[in-house]
């Protein structure tokens, strides 16, 4: 990994409906845990490589261990971290984040959010005077930031200060002392989201849902804290001479990345599609700038989403993008859409008789690798 942003893919299992339509057929062939071969509509092979590929049989705990464990321990050490799920509606973003239900699911199916919370409180230990954890939950819809812990706050502003870094001004912050308190408030936020959607006649897939855990650890270097820190197993990296640290963990369940234009959308649906597209492109551009080392020109201000993530994606932070995909052949063109162009390293072992839009995509992918792509110059 050349940057602190890792990009992973997760294929969910085929759904019942997909099995009925295509049998067991899937749109990719496994190579290894970092690459797969994607079959396009003409059965041509393209190899895609990522920091990690999670196939259908991968467990929630495997995804958590790879993506989130380092982020949780870093947050306690004052380093911000982000995990983002990306993909078309139905691809497994919310399942990866929340599991089938944040409150009622068995251990095996528990999603990233609950695992992060559980691990966080285990690491922090029981001396609650040594730390503070605060939870905020917001949603971005049509470029407006809405507080999911207080629906009356529906147009929050994003601000920056020397002490707090980037913050959402006026967003409700609830102090949380343990996992069950966290889950209670998280499920309230999720329920509020549903209420807001019903009131406004929205679908959750059209907004970005953002969970923010702000973790303040340690008092100034008083002795009780030092002995406490030394006694906590997972805090081995804490510099016991350091002052109190604050780290944020931000988890983002993005709006669906599907292309709505195809359906001839109008009015609000078209506005939604345009704003989602714009913010996903902004995110792609930011990740692209970070992963290709152009860190002087990271365009954080192009969307509310990237602005909120500014100090949790770049600089001294750690981030993971989980691109969720349906394995179904019928969804393949959407699964490998342009938005994830920023990060995959495409390997030019391909034979080309591609559609025009595929050629555009490849051209962009190659450009990011510093290669000028000429489809006519490549033969069998
Ligand atoms: P999205 O949030 O991307 O729209 P969901 O997470 O709601 O998609 O997933 C769509 C459906 O697929 C849900 O019924 C979900 O339970 C199921 N699903 C998604 N990922 C998995 C997985 N890894 N294992 C089992 N079922 C999954
Ligand atoms: Mg969802």
Map the helices and strands.
Elements: E1 5-11, H1 16-22, E2 28-30, E3 35-39, E4 45-49, E5 52-54, H2 60-67, H3 69-76, E6 80-86, H4 93-98, H5 112-124, E7 131-141, E8 144-147, E9 157-161, E10 165-169, E11 174-176, H6 179-200, E12 208-217, H7 223-231, E13 245-253, H8 267-291, H9 304-308, H10 310-313, E14 317-325, H11 332-335, E15 345-347, H12 356-368
Parallel strand pairs: 1-5, 1-14, 6-13, 6-14
Antiparallel strand pairs: 2-3, 3-4, 4-15, 7-8, 7-11, 7-12, 9-10, 12-13
Helix pairs in contact: 3-5
The structure holds adenosine-5'-diphosphate (ADP) and magnesium ion.
Adenosine-5'-diphosphate (ADP) binds near residues 90 and 205.
Short description:
This protein has 380 residues and is α/β, with parallel strands linked by helices.
Structural features, described:
GO terms for molecular function: ATP binding; microtubule binding; microtubule motor activity. This is Kinesin-like protein. Keywords: ATP-binding, Coiled coil, Microtubule, Motor protein, Nucleotide-binding. Belongs to the TRAFAC class myosin-kinesin ATPase superfamily. Kinesin family. KIN-1 subfamily. ATP binds at residues 87-94. This protein has 380 residues and is α/β, with parallel strands linked by helices. The two termini are 31 Å apart. Residues 236-241, 337-355 and 366-380 have low confidence and may be disordered. The protein has helices spanning 16-22, 60-67, 69-76, 93-98, 112-124, 179-200, 223-231, 267-291, 304-308, 310-313, 332-335, 356-368; strands spanning 5-11, 28-30, 35-39, 45-49, 52-54, 80-86, 131-141, 144-147, 157-161, 165-169, 174-176, 208-217, 245-253, 317-325, 345-347. The structure holds adenosine-5'-diphosphate and magnesium ion (MG). Magnesium ion binds at residues 93-94, 204-205, 253. Residues 93-94, 204-205, 253 line the site of magnesium ion.
């Amino acid at each position: 990994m050349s940057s602190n942003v890792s990009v992973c893919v997760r294929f969910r299992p085929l759904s019942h409906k997909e099995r009925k339509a295509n049998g067991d057929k899937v749109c990719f062939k496994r190579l290894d845990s970092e690459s797969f071969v994607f079959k396009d509509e003409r059965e041509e092979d393209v190899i895609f490589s990522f920091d990690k590929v999670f196939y259908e049989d991968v467990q929630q705990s495997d995804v958590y261990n790879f993506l989130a464990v380092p982020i949780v321990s870093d947050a306690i050490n004052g380093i911000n971290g982000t995990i983002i799920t990306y993909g078309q509606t139905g691809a497994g973003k919310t399942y990866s984040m929340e599991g089938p239900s944040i409150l009622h699911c068995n251990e095996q199916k528990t999603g990233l959010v609950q695992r992060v919370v559980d691990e966080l409180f285990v690491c922090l230990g029981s001396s609650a005077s040594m730390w503070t954890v605060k939870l905020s939950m917001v949603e971005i819809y049509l470029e407006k930031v809405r507080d999911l812990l207080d629906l009356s706050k529906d147009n929050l502003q994003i601000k920056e200060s020397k002490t707090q870094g980037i913050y959402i001004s006026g967003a409700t912050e609830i102090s949380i002392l343990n996992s069950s308190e966290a889950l209670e408030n998280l499920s309230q936020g999720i329920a509020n989201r549903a209420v807001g959607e019903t009131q406004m006649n929205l679908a959750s897939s059209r907004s970005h849902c953002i969970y923010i855990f702000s973790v303040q650890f340690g008092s100034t270097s008083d002795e009780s804290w030092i002995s406490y820190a030394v006694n906590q197993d997972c805090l081995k990296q804490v510099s016991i001479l350091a002052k109190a640290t604050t780290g944020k963990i931000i988890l983002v369940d993005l709006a669906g990345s599907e292309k709505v234009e195809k359906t001839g959308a109008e009015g609000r649906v078209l506005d939604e599609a345009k704003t989602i597209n714009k913010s996903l492109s902004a995110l792609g551009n930011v990740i692209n700038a970070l992963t290709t080392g152009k860190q002087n020109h990271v365009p954080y201000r192009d969307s509310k989403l990237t602005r909120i993530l500014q100090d949790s994606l770049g600089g001294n932070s750690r981030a993971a993008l989980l691109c969720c995909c349906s394995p179904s052949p019928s969804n393949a063109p959407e699964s490998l859409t342009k938005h994830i162009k920023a990060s995959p390293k495409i390997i030019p072992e391909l034979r080309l008789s591609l559609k025009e839009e595929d050629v555009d995509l490849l051209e962009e992918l190659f450009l990011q690798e510093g290669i000028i792509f000429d489809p006519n110059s490549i033969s069998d």
